[in-house]
Amino acid sequence: FEGKTPRIGAGTYIHPSADVFGDVTLGCGCWIGPGARIRGDYGTIILGDYCSVEDNCVIHARPGEQTTIGNWVTVGHGAVIHNVQMIHDYAIIGMGAVVSDWAVIGEWSVVGEGAVVRQGQEIPPGRIAVGVPARVLERAVDDGYKAQWTRFKETYVDLARRYPVGWVAKK
Q: I need a surface site. Which of 50, 97, 143, 153 has the fewest CB within 10 A?
């Protein structure tokens, strides 16, 4: 897009029906699913290593701004990530969730399915947020939950290695 070409890390898989264009950086070993849209046309999008962006997600940034996603982040099917300030390492964004402008999602935080994280809202590290608008639960993410999600995250890293097509960058 306007001379900006995505930078794709080694071992990253982008499904042929996904769109990744503009000022986008994808780390190593990421998995970008069918129908995902990662749009670096206005702003900058940065994803760390070993992220999974599942089917039909949208990741976008406002003009001149940046959306940053850490390492080992899971973005569930159909989620929308719009101009977030930061999604920290190991965070999980549930299916159909919306994370709005300038929000911050802490390390190992979980945004539940269908939740809406409002503009500028911060979810503390290791916490679970659910609902519309998202509210932080008293319950924290425990070691058992982290172990379960580590297995799920490793599944997508494995998929990135196993898909025969390799990666496809769309400009």
A: 143
